[in-house]
Design a protein that fits this description.
about 300 residues; alpha/beta; five-stranded parallel beta sheet; four-stranded antiparallel beta sheet; 15 helices; 9 strands; globular
Length: about 300
């Protein structure tokens, strides 16, 4: 019997207009956006639907925007009976998407999740502005080679793996100078290096100020054991209890995202259908690179709502 897991995207999936077509056809989605505006005290809906892109792409705005849009699309799917059709029994999310997964798996409320995400985005934006950081995607080599590239390029700066996305695609993060040096060094090791357009060195030690700030917010958040298991980015294992959620979400900000290992954990348990819910198709693409035998479905637009998966 097929087993289904739901996966949620992280920062970088935002685009002006996201969620607008879904909200146009779904009362449930519109209610999510209206509730988000009330909780935040500002018009997130218009930012998602109309931009401007410069503001939407800022970390403190993109994180709550992606969280809310993902939840809105999920509620539109539920409204149409798709969630009942899928019968999911596990969830995961890439970086920010882990908060979406934890909310929809029942670990904390929408309001608590949105406030956490907004604070996380604010703290990470501040940490990025306080440091000269960058990120580079390294393609075509394994973890050992990436560690060598980081060691050679660092020259005393921070530089380390940040995202283990899939085989042959590892993102490194650290000081701007180290990231610039890594491009030529990666090519020397037979890799292709692509500098990323990001605000800072996410999932690296340069985010430590955000880790410290988030600890207080997590401590003050009501978290209870959810109805579905959620795989942690940090451990590639299921969250055990509310205290583990607090600790792993805190660590997640400055530690690597082990997405490939998280998906492989679920595949090893028999999950063979993965449904990406939220803006964009990043995780759907990664899913095909991690395990081609698993079925990957994507629900990011209103058109997808009309398709009932087999």
């Amino acid at each position: 019997m097929s087993k289904t897991a739901i996966i949620f995207p992280g920062q970088g999936s935002q685009v002006v207009g996201m969620g607008r077509d879904v909200a146009e056809v779904s009362d449930a989605a519109r209610r999510v956006y209206a509730e988000a505006n009330r909780i935040l005290g500002w018009d997130l809906t218009t930012l998602c639907f109309e931009g401007p892109a410069e503001r939407l792409n800022a970390t403190d705005a993109s994180q709550p925007a992606i969280f809310v849009t993902s939840v809105a699309i999920w509620e539109a799917c539920r409204e149409r009976g798709l969630v009942d059709e899928w019968r999911p029994s596990a969830m995961a999310g890439l970086s920010l998407g882990e908060y979406t997964a934890l909310h929809l798996a029942g670990w904390f409320s929408f309001e608590a999740g949105l406030k956490l995400v907004a604070e996380r985005g604010r703290l990470m934006q501040a940490a990025a502005e306080a440091s000269q950081g960058a990120m580079v995607s390294i393609m075509g080599v394994d973890e050992a080679a990436v560690n060598t590239i980081c060691a050679e390029a660092a020259e005393g700066d921070v530089l380390a793996p940040a995202n283990f996305n899939c085989a042959g695609q590892i993102v490194i993060s650290g000081g701007k100078g180290a990231c610039e040096r890594s491009v030529a060094i990666a090519e020397k090791h037979g890799a292709r290096a692509i500098p990323l357009v990001v605000a800072g060195a996410f999932h690296s030690p340069l985010m430590q100020p955000a880790v410290d700030g988030l600890e207080a917010a997590l401590r003050d958040t009501t978290i209870t054991s959810g109805k579905l298991g959620v795989v942690s980015n940090v451990s590639a294992d299921y969250h055990a209890d509310p205290n583990a959620v607090r600790e792993l979400l805190r660590e997640q900000v400055a530690r690597p995202i082990r997405w490939q290992a998280s998906i492989e954990r679920m595949v090893s348990e028999g999950y063979d259908r993965f449904v990406e819910v939220g803006p964009g198709r990043v995780l759907t693409g990664l899913m095909r690179k991690i395990d081609r035998s698993a079925k990957a479905l994507n629900f990011s637009t209103a058109a997808a709502l009309e398709k009932v998966p087999a």
